[in-house]
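Backbone Fold Data
Goal — C-alpha cells
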Amino acid sequence: MNDVSECIPALIRVKHNGSVSIVKNEKPFHDQLKSGDFIVTAEYLPKAETAGTAIEAALQALAEVPSAVNVADNPFGVSMSSLAASVILARSGIEPICQVVTRDRNRIAIQSDLLGAAALGIRNILCLSGYHQTLTDNPESANVYDLDSTQLVGLVKKMRDQGELLNGERINGPFPVIAGAGANPCLKPMDLGIIRLMQKVEAGADFIQTHAVFDVEGFRLWLEAAKQAGITGKAAILAGVFPLESAEEAETLAKKYTEFQIPAPVIERLKSAGDREAQKKEGLAICVETIDKLKSMNGLRGIHLLTGGKEETLPAILSASGWSVKR
C-alpha cells in the first residue's frame, strides 16, 4: 500500500487569479513545528458528499494554505469522514490534520481509526471532544465520550512512543503520528483554562489551535499566562481567526456557541458597514487586522484560519495578509 504522505510534494505552486502563485512551506508539518517556522493552517469542513464541484472548489482554495489543513470530524452532523477526506487532501498535495472527536466513538473505534490513519500515511491528529450532539443536526443521537480530549492526546503519544494500544497490546509497525489539541482562550476563570491547557500539553500535545480570537487584548493576556506557565516552550500555539460575514452571523454564533466571544464593538462595526455585502467586506477587513495584530505577539507560533465551511474565502485572507504570495 502506498503511503499517501508521499503524495505531498515538497514545493507546491498554485495559480491564483491567473497571475499569482502561492508557495507552500516545503517542510512537513511536524518539521515546521520543530524548526520554529511561523505556521499558517486552515480548516476544511467536509459535507454530506462523496464527489462533485464543491469538493473540487474547496481543494483549490485549500491548496493555497502554506502549512496544513484541519479536516473536521462531523462537527455539526453527518458528513464525509475526517479520515477519508484527509486522504483526499493528501492525494491532492495538501497536508491534512485529521480531527478525531471522542463524542461518537469508544476507545476501540478510536484506536482502530488511529491505526488506519497511520497505515494510510496520515501523520497529524487533532484531538477534540466535539460539540455535544444537541448542537448538531442530529440532536437525538447518542454520545459516547469514552475518552476525553486530554486522554486522547495521551493515547496518541502512547501509541507513538511506546508502540502500544491502551491495553498494552503491541502495534505491529510504525506509528509516526503527532497530536494536537484545542484551547479556548476566552474560558473563565483564565487560571482554569491554563490548567486544562497544561494538562493537554503534559499529555503530549505538540501543537494547540485556539478558538477564534476577536478580543485581541484579551488573547494577549491569555498568551502571556500560557507563556508564564511554560506552555509556549513545549507546544506550538496557533491563534484561530474567523472572517465574520455579517452582524447577524456574529450574534447567532455568540448565542449558540460559548467559544465565540465577540465584543460588542466588533458587532457594531459590522452593522455600521451597511448592507450584507458591505458587512462581508468589513468582516474580512476585521479578520486581516486581527491577524496583523496577532502576528507580532511573542510566544505565538502561528495562525489558524477558521471559515466555518466557507473555504472559498481563504485565498482572499491569505493574499490580504501577505503570506507566501509571489507575483
User: Anything to note?
Assistant: The chain has eleven helices and eleven strands. The radius of gyration is 19 Å. Residues 101 and 128 are 5 Å apart (CA to CA).
